[in-house]
Amino acid sequence: MATKKDGTEDLEAVNLAADWSDISQGLRKDLGHQLHSQWIKPIQVGGFCKDTGTLDLYLPTEFSANWVQDRFADRLSLAWKIAKSDIRNVRIQVHPGRRKLPDMNLSGDYAGGPSAANDRGDSSMIAVAAGTIGEQGFTSSVGLDPSLTFAAFVTGETNILGCNAAQRMAATETPQFSPLYLKAATGQGKTHLMHAIGHAYLAAHPRSRIFYCSAERFMVEFVQALKQNQMIEFKARLRSFDLLLVDDIQFIIGKASAQEELLYTIDALLAEGKRLVFAADRAPQALDGVEPRLLSRLSMGLVADIAPADIELRRKILESKLTRFAPLEVPADVIEFLARTITRNVRELVGGLNKLIAYAQLTGQTVSLQLAEEQLTDILSANRRRITIDEIQRTVCQFYRIDRSEMSSKRRARAVVRPRQVAMYLSKVLTPRSYPEIGRKFGGRDHSTVIHAVRLIEDLRERDADMDGDVRSLLRQLES
Questions:
Q1: What b/e sequence results for 84-106 when a residue is b if at least 16 CB atoms lie within 10 Å of its CB, and e otherwise?
Q2: Taking the complete model, does pTM exceed 0.70, yes or no?
Q3: Which of 352, 383, 414 delimits the end of a domain?
Q4: Domain carrying residue 172
């Protein structure tokens, strides 16, 4: 009987997920891509109580839940009632797994206690740090994650601008630009750099005071100060810092009074030569619902774009993390597999490595490619972008400047054969297609021809630096 119940619940969850997919797509058309991406897409469908007719919808933060409740509750409720007649109420709330955020300390006490322990998993926290000089030298109060330093930040072509700009912002000499605006997608290292700036700035300016928070938390504390008639204290405290770090500035949307207060704070700190750093998942001009004056302040310094990590940087990041697990051995083919497969963001990449090694240690198994494929199925499936053989052929032809028809032609000229072999090799590396299937896409060639091409390019990559460079460049294009 229990099995039947479980099956019924699973079917109900599947049906709700299907309904939500339809509703979400409809809202995307109505609201536009940006509003939908920011407020509707993060919604998770919770449980449905048949007795009360109530469906739970979860959002990751208190601010986003309140925002959606205020602006989209009626629309969501109507859409669900149309999709499923037995739904009478829609309840929008914070996901129950979310931890409560600490309150901002409006008193003059800057020292952190045990309750203000570092929380690297929650970018919404507020951190206040004051440098002190003690018998053991420089130390800083809690709030900044001690592991998120410049020394631990792995650089590559895609993030070197952001890293160098962040180091300039933390240096002893006055930076040439302020504010610094770090723009990067989720999990690409912008929060790491903000913590690193805080650590380095405190090391260079031991008696300085810094303020780190998310834009969401800034708004929450602003509203609380307003309700408690503590705006004078809030303003004075906010403007007393030497370095202001505000993460996830895209959540400053709405609340004109809070935006105005942030604007005045920026002006006051800049006038005194203080330093400001903001981070967001989009450029200032792409922020919705932000006053033009505030957009102007955010973009008046340096906007440093942190692009998604390319495969070389992903390899470097994985190799840097391996030192923590010595003497555990992780084969090179596993590192290559993770670097090539987990491409969405660095956080998932490192999380995949940690999960794999933890599983191996707890079960006593050896880390292998097979174990990685078995234990990381959820991460791998989320990251796989379906690259087609047609796409590979088109990219290779553009790279070598040959006509697309040469991929299927019978011509044997070297200028045509080598690009064709490279395309066959990439088709085997980047797609799940078999040798016969690949052969058919290249003018009906035999599978042995494809095998020969794959082995030849593998051999050439080891012996010929130019060929290896060509293949690496093509891999970057296809995986970006």
A1: eeebeebebbbbeebeebbebbb
A2: no
A3: 383
A4: 119-306
